[in-house]
Predict the structure.
Amino acid sequence: MLRFLTAGESHGRALVVIVEGLPAGLPVTVAQIQDELARRRLGYGRGPRMRFEVDEVTIVSGVRHGRTLGSPVAVEIANTEWERNPEKWQTEMSVDASDGPTRQPLTQPRPGHADLAGMQKYDFVDARDVLERASARETAARVVAGTLAKAWLATLGVDVVSHVVRIGDAAAPIGPPPTIDDLDRIDADEVRCLDSGASAAMIVAIKEAAKDGDSLGGTVEVVAHGVPVGLGSHVHWDRKLDSKLAAALMSIQAVKAVEIGDGWDVAGRRGSDAHDPITWDADAGDYRRASHRAGGVEGGMSTGEPVIARVAMKPLASLNRPVLGTVDVLTKEETVSFKERTDVTAVPAMGVVAETMVALVLADEVARKFGGDTVAETRRNLDAYLAALHDGPLGPSGTEAPTGGDAIADGG
Ligand code: EPS
Protein backbone atom coordinates (compact mmCIF):
# COMPACT_ATOMS: atom_id res chain seq x y z
CA MET A 1 0.00 0.00 0.00
CA LEU A 2 2.78 2.39 1.01
CA ARG A 3 5.96 1.25 -0.69
CA PHE A 4 9.40 2.68 -1.22
CA LEU A 5 12.50 1.85 -3.17
CA THR A 6 16.01 3.14 -2.61
CA ALA A 7 18.91 3.30 -5.07
CA GLY A 8 22.47 4.50 -4.77
CA GLU A 9 25.96 3.48 -3.75
CA SER A 10 27.76 4.81 -0.68
CA HIS A 11 30.38 6.80 -2.60
CA GLY A 12 28.40 7.25 -5.82
CA ARG A 13 26.83 10.45 -7.08
CA ALA A 14 23.67 10.29 -4.94
CA LEU A 15 21.09 8.21 -3.15
CA VAL A 16 17.56 8.20 -4.51
CA VAL A 17 14.30 7.15 -2.89
CA ILE A 18 10.81 6.87 -4.36
CA VAL A 19 7.87 6.67 -1.95
CA GLU A 20 4.51 5.67 -3.34
CA GLY A 21 1.14 5.51 -1.61
CA LEU A 22 1.17 8.74 0.40
CA PRO A 23 -2.12 10.63 0.38
CA ALA A 24 -2.46 14.10 -1.12
CA GLY A 25 -2.29 17.15 1.09
CA LEU A 26 0.57 16.20 3.41
CA PRO A 27 2.78 19.23 4.15
CA VAL A 28 6.42 18.43 3.23
CA THR A 29 9.52 20.63 3.31
CA VAL A 30 13.17 20.03 2.49
CA ALA A 31 14.04 21.40 5.95
CA GLN A 32 11.91 18.75 7.64
CA ILE A 33 13.74 16.00 5.71
CA GLN A 34 17.12 17.56 6.47
CA ASP A 35 16.34 17.75 10.20
CA GLU A 36 15.59 14.04 10.26
CA LEU A 37 18.74 13.23 8.25
CA ALA A 38 20.75 15.29 10.74
CA ARG A 39 19.36 13.11 13.55
CA ARG A 40 20.67 10.03 11.71
CA ARG A 41 24.19 11.49 11.75
CA LEU A 42 24.11 11.92 15.54
CA GLY A 43 26.02 9.78 17.93
CA TYR A 44 29.41 9.50 19.54
CA GLY A 45 31.53 6.95 17.72
CA ARG A 46 30.70 7.83 14.12
CA GLY A 47 33.59 8.05 11.67
CA PRO A 48 35.02 11.25 10.11
CA ARG A 49 32.64 11.04 7.17
CA MET A 50 29.71 12.16 9.31
CA ARG A 51 31.43 15.52 9.77
CA PHE A 52 31.66 16.31 6.08
CA GLU A 53 28.82 14.33 4.46
CA VAL A 54 26.05 16.95 4.51
CA ASP A 55 23.08 15.14 2.88
CA GLU A 56 22.05 17.65 0.18
CA VAL A 57 18.35 17.04 -0.40
CA THR A 58 16.35 17.69 -3.58
CA ILE A 59 12.65 16.82 -3.79
CA VAL A 60 12.30 15.78 -7.42
CA SER A 61 8.59 14.98 -7.66
CA GLY A 62 5.32 14.38 -5.87
CA VAL A 63 5.26 17.65 -3.93
CA ARG A 64 3.85 20.96 -5.18
CA HIS A 65 3.79 24.21 -3.22
CA GLY A 66 4.69 22.39 -0.02
CA ARG A 67 2.10 19.58 -0.18
CA THR A 68 2.06 16.04 -1.53
CA LEU A 69 0.07 15.44 -4.70
CA GLY A 70 -0.73 11.76 -4.11
CA SER A 71 1.81 10.89 -6.82
CA PRO A 72 5.15 9.16 -6.13
CA VAL A 73 7.51 11.34 -4.10
CA ALA A 74 11.06 11.08 -5.43
CA VAL A 75 13.94 12.53 -3.42
CA GLU A 76 17.65 12.72 -4.22
CA ILE A 77 20.33 12.98 -1.55
CA ALA A 78 23.59 14.06 -3.14
CA ASN A 79 26.77 12.52 -1.74
CA THR A 80 28.83 15.59 -1.07
CA GLU A 81 31.95 13.48 -0.69
CA TRP A 82 31.56 12.49 -4.36
CA GLU A 83 31.34 16.17 -5.34
CA ARG A 84 34.24 17.32 -3.18
CA ASN A 85 36.60 14.53 -4.00
CA PRO A 86 36.35 14.29 -7.80
CA GLU A 87 39.75 12.63 -8.34
CA LYS A 88 38.90 9.98 -5.81
CA TRP A 89 35.25 9.02 -6.05
CA GLN A 90 34.09 10.37 -9.39
CA THR A 91 36.52 8.12 -11.23
CA GLU A 92 36.38 5.19 -8.83
CA MET A 93 32.57 5.12 -8.95
CA SER A 94 32.20 6.33 -12.55
CA VAL A 95 29.48 4.72 -14.66
CA ASP A 96 31.78 5.00 -17.70
CA ALA A 97 33.81 1.89 -18.61
CA SER A 98 36.70 4.01 -19.91
CA ASP A 99 37.29 5.45 -16.42
CA GLY A 100 38.11 1.89 -15.45
CA PRO A 101 39.16 0.88 -11.93
CA THR A 102 41.58 3.40 -10.47
CA ARG A 103 42.71 1.34 -7.53
CA GLN A 104 43.73 -2.17 -6.72
CA PRO A 105 40.65 -4.36 -6.29
CA LEU A 106 39.69 -5.20 -2.67
CA THR A 107 40.28 -8.96 -2.72
CA GLN A 108 40.36 -9.70 1.02
CA PRO A 109 36.70 -9.79 2.08
CA ARG A 110 35.76 -8.72 5.61
CA PRO A 111 34.16 -11.48 7.70
CA GLY A 112 30.72 -10.41 8.89
CA HIS A 113 30.18 -8.08 5.94
CA ALA A 114 28.33 -8.77 2.68
CA ASP A 115 31.68 -8.89 0.84
CA LEU A 116 32.40 -12.57 0.18
CA ALA A 117 28.87 -13.92 -0.28
CA GLY A 118 28.13 -10.96 -2.56
CA MET A 119 31.32 -11.49 -4.59
CA GLN A 120 30.48 -15.18 -5.05
CA LYS A 121 26.83 -14.56 -5.85
CA TYR A 122 27.41 -11.72 -8.36
CA ASP A 123 30.75 -12.92 -9.72
CA PHE A 124 32.90 -9.95 -8.66
CA VAL A 125 36.59 -10.04 -7.71
CA ASP A 126 36.49 -6.54 -6.20
CA ALA A 127 34.66 -6.31 -2.85
CA ARG A 128 33.89 -2.64 -3.65
CA ASP A 129 31.29 -3.88 -6.15
CA VAL A 130 29.39 -5.28 -3.15
CA LEU A 131 30.26 -3.03 -0.23
CA GLU A 132 29.24 0.20 -1.92
CA ARG A 133 25.62 -0.92 -1.88
CA ALA A 134 25.75 -2.99 1.31
CA SER A 135 26.96 0.11 3.20
CA ALA A 136 24.70 1.67 5.82
CA ARG A 137 24.87 4.90 3.82
CA GLU A 138 21.71 3.54 2.15
CA THR A 139 19.80 4.15 5.37
CA ALA A 140 19.88 7.90 4.64
CA ALA A 141 17.43 7.20 1.79
CA ARG A 142 15.24 5.14 4.11
CA VAL A 143 15.17 7.98 6.61
CA VAL A 144 13.78 10.29 3.92
CA ALA A 145 10.94 7.81 3.31
CA GLY A 146 10.48 7.50 7.07
CA THR A 147 10.21 11.28 7.46
CA LEU A 148 7.23 11.27 5.12
CA ALA A 149 5.66 8.26 6.87
CA LYS A 150 6.12 9.92 10.27
CA ALA A 151 4.56 13.15 9.01
CA TRP A 152 1.51 11.23 7.83
CA LEU A 153 1.26 9.22 11.06
CA ALA A 154 1.45 12.46 13.07
CA THR A 155 -1.79 13.63 11.42
CA LEU A 156 -3.39 10.51 12.95
CA GLY A 157 -1.92 11.02 16.42
CA VAL A 158 0.79 8.35 16.02
CA ASP A 159 4.44 9.07 16.81
CA VAL A 160 7.59 6.97 16.99
CA VAL A 161 10.59 7.45 19.27
CA SER A 162 13.77 5.46 19.88
CA HIS A 163 16.54 5.42 22.45
CA VAL A 164 19.73 3.46 22.94
CA VAL A 165 19.59 0.92 25.78
CA ARG A 166 22.93 -0.82 25.30
CA ILE A 167 26.32 -0.25 23.67
CA GLY A 168 28.88 -3.00 24.14
CA ASP A 169 28.62 -4.09 27.75
CA ALA A 170 27.20 -0.75 28.98
CA ALA A 171 23.42 -1.08 29.46
CA ALA A 172 20.74 1.34 30.66
CA PRO A 173 18.30 0.23 33.38
CA ILE A 174 14.88 -0.74 32.01
CA GLY A 175 12.40 2.08 32.59
CA PRO A 176 8.99 3.10 31.28
CA PRO A 177 8.90 3.48 27.48
CA PRO A 178 9.89 7.04 26.46
CA THR A 179 7.41 9.33 24.70
CA ILE A 180 7.83 11.93 21.99
CA ASP A 181 8.29 14.53 24.77
CA ASP A 182 11.56 12.77 25.68
CA LEU A 183 12.93 12.92 22.15
CA ASP A 184 14.79 16.25 22.41
CA ARG A 185 16.50 15.02 25.58
CA ILE A 186 17.40 11.71 23.88
CA ASP A 187 18.78 13.47 20.79
CA ALA A 188 20.76 15.87 22.97
CA ASP A 189 22.63 12.97 24.53
CA GLU A 190 25.82 11.95 22.73
CA VAL A 191 24.71 8.33 22.44
CA ARG A 192 20.93 8.97 22.43
CA CYS A 193 20.50 7.33 25.84
CA LEU A 194 18.02 8.62 28.46
CA ASP A 195 20.02 7.45 31.46
CA SER A 196 23.00 9.75 32.08
CA GLY A 197 25.00 7.16 34.03
CA ALA A 198 24.59 4.55 31.30
CA SER A 199 25.37 7.16 28.64
CA ALA A 200 28.69 7.98 30.34
CA ALA A 201 29.55 4.26 30.54
CA MET A 202 28.71 3.83 26.83
CA ILE A 203 31.03 6.68 25.89
CA VAL A 204 33.86 5.12 27.93
CA ALA A 205 33.25 1.80 26.15
CA ILE A 206 33.34 3.51 22.73
CA LYS A 207 36.57 5.36 23.59
CA GLU A 208 38.21 2.12 24.68
CA ALA A 209 37.12 0.28 21.54
CA ALA A 210 38.33 3.20 19.39
CA LYS A 211 41.74 3.08 21.08
CA ASP A 212 41.99 -0.58 20.10
CA GLY A 213 40.78 0.07 16.53
CA ASP A 214 37.75 -2.06 17.35
CA SER A 215 33.97 -1.70 16.95
CA LEU A 216 30.91 -2.08 19.22
CA GLY A 217 27.32 -3.20 18.74
CA GLY A 218 24.32 -2.55 20.92
CA THR A 219 20.55 -2.38 21.30
CA VAL A 220 17.92 0.28 20.74
CA GLU A 221 14.31 0.34 21.85
CA VAL A 222 11.70 1.79 19.47
CA VAL A 223 8.30 2.83 20.77
CA ALA A 224 5.25 3.92 18.78
CA HIS A 225 2.50 5.74 20.70
CA GLY A 226 -1.06 6.37 19.56
CA VAL A 227 -1.26 3.29 17.32
CA PRO A 228 -4.96 2.42 17.00
CA VAL A 229 -6.12 -1.07 17.90
CA GLY A 230 -6.37 -3.46 14.95
CA LEU A 231 -3.41 -2.75 12.63
CA GLY A 232 -2.14 -6.03 11.18
CA SER A 233 -4.20 -9.21 11.42
CA HIS A 234 -4.30 -12.68 12.96
CA VAL A 235 -5.64 -14.31 9.80
CA HIS A 236 -2.43 -14.93 7.80
CA TRP A 237 1.26 -15.15 8.59
CA ASP A 238 2.11 -12.35 6.19
CA ARG A 239 -0.46 -9.95 7.63
CA LYS A 240 0.79 -10.07 11.21
CA LEU A 241 2.03 -6.71 12.45
CA ASP A 242 4.81 -8.21 14.57
CA SER A 243 6.16 -10.25 11.65
CA LYS A 244 6.22 -7.13 9.48
CA LEU A 245 7.98 -5.10 12.14
CA ALA A 246 10.54 -7.85 12.67
CA ALA A 247 11.26 -8.15 8.95
CA ALA A 248 11.55 -4.39 8.49
CA LEU A 249 13.86 -3.98 11.48
CA MET A 250 15.99 -7.02 10.55
CA SER A 251 16.55 -5.45 7.13
CA ILE A 252 18.62 -2.65 8.70
CA GLN A 253 22.32 -3.14 7.99
CA ALA A 254 24.14 -5.03 10.81
CA VAL A 255 20.96 -5.84 12.76
CA LYS A 256 20.99 -9.44 14.00
CA ALA A 257 18.01 -9.69 16.39
CA VAL A 258 14.62 -8.08 17.00
CA GLU A 259 12.24 -8.66 19.90
CA ILE A 260 8.70 -7.40 20.26
CA GLY A 261 7.97 -6.34 23.84
CA ASP A 262 9.76 -8.56 26.34
CA GLY A 263 10.14 -11.36 23.75
CA TRP A 264 13.32 -13.06 25.04
CA ASP A 265 12.56 -12.53 28.71
CA VAL A 266 8.98 -13.78 28.42
CA ALA A 267 10.21 -17.06 26.93
CA GLY A 268 11.68 -17.95 30.34
CA ARG A 269 8.60 -17.09 32.44
CA ARG A 270 5.46 -18.94 33.44
CA GLY A 271 2.29 -18.10 31.55
CA SER A 272 0.77 -16.60 34.69
CA ASP A 273 3.59 -14.03 34.70
CA ALA A 274 4.12 -13.44 30.99
CA HIS A 275 1.06 -11.56 29.74
CA ASP A 276 -0.59 -8.17 30.11
CA PRO A 277 -3.85 -8.32 32.11
CA ILE A 278 -6.77 -6.57 30.40
CA THR A 279 -8.41 -3.77 32.41
CA TRP A 280 -11.31 -1.41 31.77
CA ASP A 281 -10.65 2.33 31.97
CA ALA A 282 -14.11 3.74 32.76
CA ASP A 283 -12.97 7.35 32.32
CA ALA A 284 -11.59 6.72 28.84
CA GLY A 285 -14.32 4.19 28.05
CA ASP A 286 -11.69 1.85 26.69
CA TYR A 287 -9.68 -1.28 27.43
CA ARG A 288 -6.12 -1.07 28.74
CA ARG A 289 -3.31 -3.47 29.47
CA ALA A 290 -1.75 -3.42 32.92
CA SER A 291 1.79 -3.97 31.53
CA HIS A 292 3.67 -3.86 28.21
CA ARG A 293 5.17 -7.35 27.93
CA ALA A 294 3.52 -8.07 24.59
CA GLY A 295 4.93 -4.86 23.13
CA GLY A 296 1.48 -3.67 22.06
CA VAL A 297 0.90 -6.56 19.64
CA GLU A 298 -1.29 -9.62 20.33
CA GLY A 299 -2.18 -12.19 17.69
CA GLY A 300 -0.41 -10.10 15.05
CA MET A 301 -2.61 -7.04 15.76
CA SER A 302 -1.93 -3.78 17.55
CA THR A 303 -3.80 -3.61 20.87
CA GLY A 304 -3.90 0.17 21.24
CA GLU A 305 -1.02 0.09 23.73
CA PRO A 306 2.44 1.45 22.82
CA VAL A 307 4.11 -0.74 20.19
CA ILE A 308 7.57 -1.64 21.50
CA ALA A 309 10.43 -3.35 19.67
CA ARG A 310 14.07 -3.84 20.65
CA VAL A 311 16.68 -4.11 17.94
CA ALA A 312 20.19 -5.55 18.37
CA MET A 313 23.06 -4.51 16.10
CA LYS A 314 26.28 -6.47 15.81
CA PRO A 315 29.64 -4.68 16.09
CA LEU A 316 30.44 -3.34 12.61
CA ALA A 317 32.52 -5.69 10.50
CA SER A 318 34.83 -2.94 9.21
CA LEU A 319 37.59 -2.35 11.72
CA ASN A 320 40.18 0.40 11.88
CA ARG A 321 42.70 -2.28 12.92
CA PRO A 322 42.52 -5.17 10.48
CA VAL A 323 42.67 -8.33 12.58
CA LEU A 324 39.84 -10.52 11.30
CA GLY A 325 41.07 -13.58 9.44
CA THR A 326 40.12 -13.95 5.80
CA VAL A 327 41.35 -15.33 2.48
CA ASP A 328 42.59 -13.34 -0.51
CA VAL A 329 40.18 -14.41 -3.25
CA LEU A 330 42.89 -14.25 -5.96
CA THR A 331 45.83 -15.97 -4.20
CA LYS A 332 43.78 -18.08 -1.73
CA GLU A 333 46.32 -17.13 0.92
CA GLU A 334 45.05 -16.68 4.46
CA THR A 335 45.48 -13.07 5.58
CA VAL A 336 43.58 -10.36 7.51
CA SER A 337 40.71 -8.37 6.02
CA PHE A 338 41.40 -4.94 4.55
CA LYS A 339 41.20 -1.79 6.63
CA GLU A 340 38.33 0.53 5.63
CA ARG A 341 37.57 3.89 7.20
CA THR A 342 34.55 3.29 9.41
CA ASP A 343 32.53 4.08 12.52
CA VAL A 344 33.41 2.64 15.96
CA THR A 345 29.69 2.24 16.55
CA ALA A 346 26.56 3.29 14.68
CA VAL A 347 24.02 2.17 17.30
CA PRO A 348 22.68 5.72 18.05
CA ALA A 349 22.11 6.31 14.32
CA MET A 350 20.53 2.88 13.96
CA GLY A 351 17.84 4.02 16.42
CA VAL A 352 16.76 6.75 14.00
CA VAL A 353 16.70 4.21 11.16
CA ALA A 354 14.67 1.82 13.35
CA GLU A 355 12.12 4.61 13.97
CA THR A 356 11.97 5.00 10.21
CA MET A 357 11.29 1.32 9.55
CA VAL A 358 8.62 1.15 12.26
CA ALA A 359 6.96 4.30 10.87
CA LEU A 360 6.97 2.85 7.34
CA VAL A 361 5.38 -0.43 8.49
CA LEU A 362 2.72 1.40 10.53
CA ALA A 363 1.97 3.81 7.66
CA ASP A 364 1.62 0.85 5.30
CA GLU A 365 -0.86 -0.79 7.67
CA VAL A 366 -2.72 2.51 8.13
CA ALA A 367 -3.06 2.72 4.33
CA ARG A 368 -4.36 -0.87 4.24
CA LYS A 369 -6.93 -0.44 7.01
CA PHE A 370 -8.07 3.15 6.54
CA GLY A 371 -7.21 3.99 2.92
CA GLY A 372 -7.94 7.52 1.75
CA ASP A 373 -6.62 9.63 -1.10
CA THR A 374 -6.17 12.68 1.09
CA VAL A 375 -4.79 13.23 4.57
CA ALA A 376 -8.25 14.40 5.69
CA GLU A 377 -9.95 11.32 4.25
CA THR A 378 -7.66 8.91 6.13
CA ARG A 379 -8.28 10.86 9.33
CA ARG A 380 -12.06 10.71 8.77
CA ASN A 381 -11.88 6.96 8.19
CA LEU A 382 -9.85 6.44 11.37
CA ASP A 383 -12.26 8.60 13.39
CA ALA A 384 -15.26 6.69 12.02
CA TYR A 385 -13.65 3.36 12.97
CA LEU A 386 -12.86 4.56 16.50
CA ALA A 387 -16.39 5.99 16.88
CA ALA A 388 -17.92 2.69 15.71
CA LEU A 389 -15.81 0.80 18.25
CA HIS A 390 -16.89 3.18 20.99
CA ASP A 391 -20.59 3.02 20.08
CA GLY A 392 -20.67 -0.72 19.32
CA PRO A 393 -21.23 -3.72 21.59
CA LEU A 394 -17.61 -3.75 22.78
CA GLY A 395 -17.71 -0.07 23.73
CA PRO A 396 -18.76 1.51 27.06
CA SER A 397 -22.50 1.34 26.42
CA GLY A 398 -22.59 -2.14 24.88
CA THR A 399 -24.01 -4.68 27.31
CA GLU A 400 -25.71 -7.29 25.14
CA ALA A 401 -24.25 -10.12 23.13
CA PRO A 402 -24.98 -9.24 19.49
CA THR A 403 -26.70 -12.51 18.56
CA GLY A 404 -28.79 -12.92 21.71
CA GLY A 405 -28.63 -15.86 24.08
CA ASP A 406 -26.08 -16.27 26.84
CA ALA A 407 -22.66 -14.72 26.38
CA ILE A 408 -19.97 -17.40 26.44
CA ALA A 409 -17.23 -16.39 28.84
CA ASP A 410 -15.03 -19.47 28.95
CA GLY A 411 -13.86 -19.18 25.36
CA GLY A 412 -15.13 -22.62 24.35
C1 EPS B 1 30.05 2.45 6.35
C2 EPS B 1 31.29 3.02 6.56
C3 EPS B 1 31.44 4.47 6.76
C4 EPS B 1 30.16 5.03 7.34
C5 EPS B 1 29.03 4.69 6.37
C6 EPS B 1 28.79 3.22 6.41
O1 EPS B 1 31.58 5.14 5.53
P1 EPS B 1 33.01 5.58 4.98
O2 EPS B 1 33.74 4.30 4.74
O3 EPS B 1 32.69 6.33 3.70
O4 EPS B 1 33.58 6.47 6.03
O5 EPS B 1 30.28 6.39 7.59
O6 EPS B 1 27.86 5.32 6.73
C7 EPS B 1 27.50 6.41 6.03
C8 EPS B 1 28.20 7.01 5.08
C9 EPS B 1 26.19 6.91 6.41
O7 EPS B 1 25.73 7.92 5.82
O8 EPS B 1 25.59 6.30 7.31
C10 EPS B 1 29.95 1.02 6.07
O9 EPS B 1 30.97 0.33 6.01
O10 EPS B 1 28.81 0.51 5.92
Notes: Residues 10, 47, 49, 53, 135-137, 139-140, 318, 340-343 surround EPS (CB under 6 Å). The chain has two domains: 3-261+296-370, 371-412. The chain has 13 helices and 17 strands. Residues 3-261+296-370 form a domain with the Chorismate synthase, AroC fold fold (CATH 3.60.150.10).
